[in-house]
Amino acid sequence: MKTKGIKNLAALVAVCVMCSFFTSCSRITKSFQDGQILRVNDEYITDRQAKVFLCVLKEKYETMFGKEAWSEKFGDASLDAYVKEQVQTQLVQLASMQLLAKEKKISLQKKEEKRAEHAADTFWGLFSKEQKKQVGFGKEEVLQLYRQYALADKVYRQLTKSVNKEISDDEARNIDVQVILFKTYTTGEDGSRISLGQEERRAVTDKAYVVWQQAAEGKSFDTLASQFNESDQTEYHIGRGEMDDPAFDEAAFKLSTGEISSLVEGKTGIYIIKCISNYNQVETDANKKAIYEEECAKVLNKEYDAFMKHVEVEVNQKAWDKVSVEQNTDYPAADFVAIYEQTAGE
Fold it and tell me: What residues contact residue 174 under an 8 Å CB cut-off, 6+ apart?
């Protein structure tokens, strides 16, 4: 399995780490040396390591939103603060996974060490001589982070190796449908849904039946949808359960390609469903991967949550506040994760 697992791991544990395990930033319980900004049990993280990820995320967000994004707000925070929070999370995750690796007696083999070294060489080689003077970190920090990343990914793969990768076509099947919805509710002033009364609901059902008859007799479903659909969307690519309506789900997945359902009474209204394709190969394959990763997440969360109950994370707030994104400096588009993935099999 390729190293994409660690990206899923990062997404899964970010909230857990950030919300539950930071000790008070106003009271330092263990001494920090110069340059140390975080402590995860007895693992210390430096400002130079942080600058590696700050550099990566700076280029990522400027590519997505432009340099002007630094003056914008991300929720209640500036982009600078938002990026720093992400970096703090990533660093804590990596350090925590090193501790978990020790507990599980998992270590890197020589080949895996070489892969981390190759990734570090590639990453560092993207910077010009002038940029290397400006970034505030060196190849040593890059290599250290790649070694941590490689070990974290190995831990992830070890923890999830028992998860069954064989997902059946039926479980993962995705279909393409067109839908005409007749709402059986109105919206109150506060935005809440108010169900229609019995007579109003009967009128909606009668209207839906007339439209269904026209569809069954061969009138263009697109035309009928443009005239009568009360939803903003007509076409859907869906897997089981994605519509959050069991009645819709049951009816849609019974249809053959080209078949039109009878009237389906769902949570929010009455549906007429036309199956465009009862097996979308591309979406089904993607859903198999998603289902597998979800199962991995369950295994990972159970193990990781139990472990993190015994992990203490502390921030050297004074030192952390001095770390900032160098907004006026241009760096290469060095994608930390992508570079590591590209070294697979080399």
Answer: 237, 238, 239, 279, 280, 283, 284, 286, 287
> What is the rounded CA–CA span in Å between residue 106 and residue 98?
9
Contact predicate 51/323, CB 8 Å: yes
* pTM of the predicted protein model: 0.72
CA-to-CA distance for 149 and 143, rounded, in angstroms?
10
DSSP helix/strand/coil, 209: helix
Per residue in 241-274, pLDDT (tens digit) is 999 999 999 999 999 999 999 999 999 999 999 9
Count of residues in the chain: 346
Sign of CA dihedral 48, 341, 286, 9: negative
Q: Is 142 helix (H, G, I), strand (E, B) or coil?
A: helix
- What pLDDT does 346 receive? 59
Instruction: Domains for the chain: give ranges and CATH numbers.
Output: 5-164+287-342 (no CATH), 174-278 (3.10.50.40)
Cβ contact 163:296 at 8 Å: yes
